[in-house]
Amino acid sequence: MPIDPAVAIGAHIGEVSFAWTPSDVLLYHLALGAGPDEQRYTYERDLVVVPTFATVAANLRVFEPPALSFPGVEIDLAKVLHGKQEITLHGPIPVEGKAVARSRIADVFDKGKAAVIVQEVDVTSADGSPLWTARSSIFARGEGGFGGSRGPSDRIEWPSRDPDFVLETPTLPQQALLYRLCGDRNPLHADPAFASAAGFPSPILHGLCTYGVVARVLINEFLDGDPSRVGSFATKFAGVVFPGETLRTRVWRGDDRLLVSTSAVEREDAPVLADTVLTFT
Question: Where are the transmembrane segments (predicted)?
Answer without folding.
Answer: none
